[in-house]
Amino acid sequence: MKKILVVAILLTMATSCAKVEISTPESLSIAGSWQVSLDSLATFQPIQLPGTTDDAGLGEPNTLQPALQLPQLQSLRRKHSFIGYAFYKRTVDIPESMAGQPLKLKLERVLWQSSVWIDGVQLEGAEESLVSAHRYMVPQGLSAGPHEIVLRIDNRKRYDISRNELAHAYTNDTQIKWNGVLGEMSLTVVRPVEIARVDVYPSVRKHSVEVVTTLVRHGDADKASVTVLTDLGGRSKRQAALAGDTTVVRSVCRLGGRAALWDEFNPDLHQVTVVCGDDSRTVQFGLREITTEGTHIKVNGRTVFMRGTLDCCIFPLTGTPPTDEAGWEKVFTTVKDWGLNHVRFHSWCPPDAAFRVADRMGIYLQPELPIWSSATVYPAVQAFLMAETDRILEDYGNHPSFCMLSGGNELDRGYEYLNEWLRYLKQTDPRHIYTNATYSMGGDHKGSPEPEDQYFIASRSKLGQVRGQDYLNAEVPDFTHDYSRTAIDQGVPMISHEVGQYSVYPDIREID
Q: Which range has the worst mean pLDDT, 70-84, 249-263, 381-395?
């Protein structure tokens, strides 16, 4: 009898779980053939989006002639250069199934500012993120049939984030200062109660996840039911009163002892699906915790050594980073083939595809805020960087490969702000570890961690050099030198800065 009762209970639970209906809001791609006008609305010509004016051969042509001279050798050059604002337009047909419902327009990556008009009416806001998608609400929706969308993309510099125009989020030195749109371009139906955000906080010790769901009310509903399902059978259901426009619902799901952990050796992934009415969101995550203990970085309690390289957004065939997984599989396969486990993104943050591939391949990533300058003392720049921080956490925070975050490259001012930034991050999101800068360069701050740093990146400590680059021109290279004396007593884990930065002069005769 007991066995029959247990089976009956299990069947009842399974049946109950099966009754949860998962509906995904309808979406319409707006990628394809567009028309573009540079600086005015007088003349338009065809262009493909996603894409750039460089891809279309628009702008000032490169007139440099091949020569062994500094302008030709200093960096790759754009075939066509355009800096300014460009207008892009196309007509899209809204199907009956999407008509009359609020919509969200998404442009996955833009450099630097965007504005949007539909049928001559400007949508609220102007987006300026360099690290995440530009999103716009169409609150009243659109009728079925044709509608004209106009984008205004302005790739002129908005903030002083760059020393000598070298910060890799906005530069012609590695990627280019392109004008256009990269990645996903879409219109998506927004439900009356929208699942606007899902944050997943794993607990390795408890083998559970806390799921924080942000609901946004677009109608007059006063309550909602939020169900959380995991791929391992975990389930939680909560009722929420919708008192304001935004409501946060917290749920906990146990994963069970058979839930595999995520790390570089076994990058096992799990899924959480959140259902609220006729809206749903599925999030992929890893059961992973990264912490520090003394001078060690630990992943799931095990000490790891960061064997890393840096990525400066160097994609010379396009001048733009890939937004598809194939492009990042090529990059990270090379990383793994060389025995590395860690990639630092120098003064930029890659698109979501990079994190998805690194999740699967088991690579520890460190994106950075888009800055390499002394402008961290200016309130406008600080506000921009804080907004970029929140966008990074919202768009990429669930990825287990997103392990570390730096405030920028070689910063030398604004330490009060940087320590405040670190305090905010540690209190807001414990899923990652944080450092004020990738090598702090400011006066007495150089060579030692900041009070709020969880780890420390430098080419030298207060005790001396911690990389060979700084002495190899003065001494004969050897295999016996170690940095134990200069790397000790930092109080936090230390990562050596840009170790492999050497000039290489190929023998051009080998080309023949």
A: 70-84
Q: Tell me: do 389 and 457 sit in the same domain.
A: yes
Nearest in space to 214 (alpha carbons), one of 202, 200, 203: 200
The verdict on residue 348 lying in a domain is yes
Proportion of the chain above pLDDT 90, given as a percent: 80
Q: What is the pLDDT of residue 9?
A: 25
Q: Is the pLDDT of residue 307 over 90?
A: yes
Residue type, 189: V
What span, in angstroms and rounded, lies between the C-alpha atoms of 85 and 151? 10
Tell me if 405 sits within 8 A of 392, measured CB to CB.
Answer: yes
- For residue range 438-452, list pLDDT tens digits in order: 999 999 999 999 999
238/129 same-domain check: no
Residue 506 in this model has a pLDDT that exceeds 90: no
Nearest alpha-carbon partner for 259 in 235, 239, 288, 236: 288
Is-contact 260 3, C-beta < 8 A? no
Tokens linked to 331: 């990059």
Q: What is the mean pLDDT of residues 142-156?
A: 98
- Residue 358 to residue 58: CA distance in whole angstroms: 34
CB 451: neighbour CB atoms within 10 A? 11
Nearest 10 degrees: Cα torsion 440, 415, 386, 391: 30
CA separation for the pair 225, 238 (Å, rounded): 6
pLDDT at 445: 93
Please give the single-letter amino acid code of residue 59.
Answer: G
Rounded-to-integer distance, Cα 81 and Cα 155, Å: 11
pLDDT band at 512 (very low <50, low <70, confident <90, very high): low
User: What CATH number did the domain enclosing 333 receive?
Assistant: 3.20.20.80
379-396 helix and 352-361 helix, angle to the nearest 10 degrees: 50
- R_g (Cα) of the chain, nearest Å: 25
User: Does residue 476 sit within a domain?
Assistant: yes
- Cβ atoms of 209 and 232 within 8 Å: the answer is no
Q: For position 473, what pLDDT does the model report?
A: 66
Determine the Cα–Cα distance for residues 197 and 213; give it in Å rounded to an integer.
6
